[in-house]
Amino acid sequence: MSRLMSVVSGPYAPPAPARELTAVSADGARLHVEVHGPEGAPAVVLAHGWTCSTAFWAAQIRDLAVDHRVVAYDQRGHGRSPASPACSADALADDLEAVLAATLAPGEKAVIAGHSMGGMTVMAAAARPGFREHAVAVLLCSTGASQLVAESTVLPLRPGRLRTWLTKQVLGSRAPLGPVTPLARRILRYATMGPGSAPHMVEACARIVHACPRKVRHAWSQVLDLLDLDHGVRELRVPTAVVVGTADRLTPPVHARTLAAALPDCVGTTELPGLGHMTPVEAPELVSGRIRELVTTYVTVEEKTAEKVEEGA
Fold first, then answer.
1. Who contacts 28 (Cβ-Cβ below 8 Å, separation ≥6)?
2. Can you list the residues of the chain whose pLDDT is less than 70?
């Protein structure tokens, strides 16, 4: 898979897509897009987080593509999407709009799930016409809208300016991650996953994260440091569910609770005991189940409403 170092077997091995395409964003950035599952099935769109790729959603794609059309794409600079000098929340929103336009029919509705920076992408796009045309419901996994570095507990220090400054240096490091060694796996587990994460989960995440180019990792860390999408949360007017791990050090539960309080239509917050930041990998069945619930509840309702309108015309 190009420069990716994904696992090759088991639930976290990326399944082969039904088709692949390139979506072109507003500034000309080219985005690698995969479509899985049967044409005509209810649509789900997946946006991954910082330092990840479409491979991060392997378990959800494998589960949902049986009876959903699943769209997954690589954020710019990640996976198979070339790096771009433009790194900003607006660029993330542009990219999501481009993917929706390239993969969904006019007016077609989809459940959109975003993990970490993918959730921030959703919030950044919340007021965009292209997003509102297609989004019927949203799942936000392990994400936050602002104060990301200040609230992070990756470093076991008291909250304050020192911890915030040191966290910024760690997360924004330009140092290469190198090969996936036992030490690298232990560090990644500590920073991003719950203490009880199974070795195959840690291995999958480590391979994905270590494949992210260090320049891309650094560039997006600067965006996340200054991110403020509180206004985007208030613009997210579709039914939205929130999932977070109680042991999440990158986006601790305080973010999920803040989101739930600010969302115009929050349809539930799930806090997963002992799990870390990588919830789609650490709790694959639960995350897939939440997406299925949103599809069943809201895509079906939308389709029935449209049918009634057509019958009355």
1. none
2. 1-5, 301-313
